[in-house]
Amino acid sequence: MTTKLPPPARKDPTRRTRLPTRPPGNRSREAHGLTAMAAAGRFALQTCAGCGTVQYPPRQICGRCLGDALEWRDVAPGGRLLAETTLAHSNDLFFRDRLPWRLGVVQSDAGPSMVAHLAEDCVAGERVRLALAIDRAGNAAVTARPETPTPNPEDDRQLREMAFEPKDRRVLIVDGKTGLGLALARGFADAGARAVYVGHAQPWRRSGNLEAAREIERASLFPLDVTDTQSVADLAATIGDKVEILVNNAYHLRMGGVLGRCDLNTAHDEMEIHYHGLLRLAGHFGPVMRARGADGAHGAAAWVNVLSAYALVNNPSLGTYSASQAAALSLAQCLRAELAEGGVRVVNAFLGPLDDEWHQLAPPPKLDPATVARRIVAGLGAGVEDLPVGAVAEEIFARRAENPKEIERAMKL
Amino acid sequence: MTARRLGYDGIVVAAPVTVPYARYSIRSAHWFCGRALAGLIREAGVDKAEIDGFCISSFTLDPDSAVGLMQHLGVSPRWLDHIPMGGASGAVALRRAARAVQAGDAEIVALIGADTNHVDSFRRTVATFSQFANDAVYPYGAGGPNASFAFLTDHYMKEFGARREDFGRLCIAQRDNALPVPHAMMKRPLTMGQYLDARPIALPLRLFDCVMPCAGAEACLVTTGDRARSLGLPCAPVLATIERHNAFPDDPIQYRGGWAVDAGELYDQAGLGPGDIDLVQAYDDYPVICFMQIEDLGFCAKGEAPAFVRERDLRTGGDFPFNTSGGQLSAGQAGAGGGFIGLVETLRQLTGRTHGHPVEGARHGLVSCFGMINYDRGLCTSAAILGRSDR
Predict the structure, then answer these.
(1) Strands ordered across the beta sheet of A70-74
(2) What's residue B391's pLDDT?
(3) Minimal Cα distance from A27: which residue of B?
């Protein structure tokens, strides 16, 4: 059983806040193939298309047949823990701050032996389940947990550094007036978040969702309008030093493309909420989150952007909306690079059409907001970086990987 | 059937030189190489220009290689080799140089293994050691070689039933051997209690299982027996050598090295067997690798080194003289110099010029080298047998 992590104590203002450091981040191009797999939550290793050899660490040539047709294929994640060590000494500042640190060599069922970060309950000689996580420097790292799950896996002291468990963390849901906002607030509360801050704009507009959010235990409501710089600044001044997971779920969707509806006002609103809204939030909440990336076991962990999968390929039926989502995605990549300095992860969730009033004309399948919330919370626990949510988003990911021109031609609601 | 290998008839090693070790130094690797060369010239009584070949091993010459070093040292050799094999460099340099001298490509080759150790230079060497280490080992705790050898030690203990005390016996015997050696960094006797209770580093490894990185140099000359005799130099003939890289790649974790492939050939070339060896210098950055060498070089069967060290006396005066100058575990690890410490000590023993206790009547010395943990295991192994000159 994983040792239970004590709930965070009240912060002692006389004690130094641990500064963020990052584990060694120097990786080869080939190794970033693993990062791509980790970002998608896959356990895939480099496999030779010629002779089928699975190899690790990654390289540019097959170590058996010398072929260069190397692919990333999902492989069995099982293995056996051959040897272990507990480091009491490290050459690196990140690990020095976190000693002792336990590592192992796992003989994977796929073939290669792999050095891995070990969960507390891994036992020498026993079976383990391997995974690719993303470490605090933003690179892939191999982790091993017992093959048979043990209680409290989310409390694992070491592997928490590579995931963003909401448990005992304080979460800001940017927009609580939508069905999605309510579902997210409930989802994070159910996942054990210590506090759920729920933002709400447009005080003149009543919202049943917000009223329901008010009833959630450990939830509190705050005015927050992402189109208003002062509003964002005010809330950051109030709770910015407490937010450990920020979920930017504000969205503004209206149907229409360019020629049929050259509507600059709608396009402006979309950009204002999706792009400038993200920029305002990042500018005011980002710096303090980056500074608190190593603030104890419950420090700032993740910034979640709830994006549309149409950020990846424009859907002409939602033409300007898609364009503003693409702008937000690009900005999120910038934010990812900057927050990485503090070890804070930017997670992008890519949604298919939601089952809400604005997606009235979108054909099914449409996403239940509760499902979206569940997937996002699970994705954070798994340490995933790019998260397709729902069948539509998953299909866009797959078709884009196969032939981006094909999906560009075929995309419509 | 491969062609029979040529012997090393008439090729000898001479002029053992050690540039005293320092835990940290403000000198460069170039300085240590230069002092080693000065030592060789003084020892051999030759002019600098008479040394016409160089075999260099160093991690810290950066941004230079052996080439730049030649201009630093003001020499114009007709034969130059750079052996980037760390701990395996000694016997490899020996066999390269022996063939060059045998073929007449060079007459006197200086073998130099040298490194400096600035504050923080070891960390930087480890942090950029290899692509596989950067990608798949160093980001995991940044333990460096301590962590890699902790895995091998943990596995060896579980697989073969070795106990901490067994490794302790080896470390204590080596420390005993180091006590009279003036340049050994650690010259206080080690007790079993101190060994077992030492500060944990990377469990199961504790402080006295780990070499201490330091600065220093080891060097010697390879030439013909005729030339050595004309210079009046005590020397040791080269009887046999082997090297192997990336042996047993399918072993899921390392419990044996390339010696297990090539030991038979080593003894055949020398016309000797393990029982004829009077002293052994084995690469000893961590005791577990000594156990593997004792097994793979045929002194006992696989997995029996723990019993072997319990039954035999590894001290210089014992029945299995092992790392007779104290090895790196007592002297410190002078980077690539660690790849030559065994060669230089064997030469001292066989020419009767020891710093510490001599092994009385020793006729055959075995040097075994190991290096380069590229990912999860050491890739390079080499070994040589030297004889006693009956001049």
Answers:
(1) A54-55, A44-48, A70-74
(2) 46
(3) B135
